[in-house]
Amino acid sequence: MQISDAGIALIKQFEGCELKAYQDAAGVWTIGYGWTQLVDGKKIREDMTITQRTAERLLRCGVVQYEQGVNKLLKVGVTQGQYDALVSFAYNLGVRALGTSTLLKKLNDGDTQGAAEEFMKWTKVGGMQLAGLFMRRTAERALFLS
């Protein structure tokens, strides 16, 4: 499967787009649509800037690794909405977090409703609930259940 335009829109909505590097809530240097990995072979640093075109390229090319990760982890068929929500979740938290989550275990065990409820357990950074993560997980859960 591949992420749909609705899935990309969800990621864009919650990541926002910053063309100048910034530190996210966890202190990680970030740029574009929440991108934290290398940009054209360079580590993201405080003085880095990119164009809107580069931000779009990073998102479109970068999301592929999250699609591949989700595809490898799934043991059951899913709807497009479920898939999009899972890719958004993995884009935000990493494929490893999804792979070790109770959310994935419940989904692969056939407990779709139980899996949906697990989204809301991922709303904190450093023990503190963040409004943005709460809203994102709520939107991912709704898409998952659509």
Please give a structural write-up.
By secondary structure, this protein is mainly alpha-helical. The strands form 2 sheets. The protein has a two-stranded antiparallel ribbon with strand order 1-2. The chain has a single domain (5-145), classed as Lysozyme, CATH 1.10.530. Helices cover 55% and strands 10% of the residues. The two termini are 17 Å apart. Helix 1 packs parallel to helix 3 (80-93). A hairpin with a 2-residue loop joins strand 3 and strand 4 (128-129).
Number of helices: 7
Q: Strand percentage, roughly? A: 5-15%
Distance between the termini: 17 Å
Sheet of most strands: 2 strands, antiparallel
Task: Calculate the mean pLDDT score and round it.
Answer: 96
**Main β-sheet, spatial strand arrangement:** 1-2
The number of strands is 4
Describe the global form.
globular
How helix-rich are the residues, as a percent range? 55-70%
CATH architecture field? Orthogonal Bundle
| Helical/strand content category | mainly alpha
- Radius of gyration over all CA atoms, rounded: 15 Å
Spell the H/E element sequence.
Answer: HEEHHHHHEEH
Low-confidence parts, pLDDT < 50 over ≥5 residues?
Answer: none
Oligomer: single chain
CATH topology: Lysozyme
Q: At the first level of CATH, what is the class? A: Mainly Alpha
Total number of distinct structural domains: 1
EC number: 3.2.1.17
InterPro entries: Bacteriophage_GH24, Endolysin_autolysin, Endolysin_T4_type, Glyco_hydro_24, Lysozyme-like_dom_sf, Lysozyme_dom_sf
Protein name: Lysozyme
Family: Belongs to the glycosyl hydrolase 24 family.
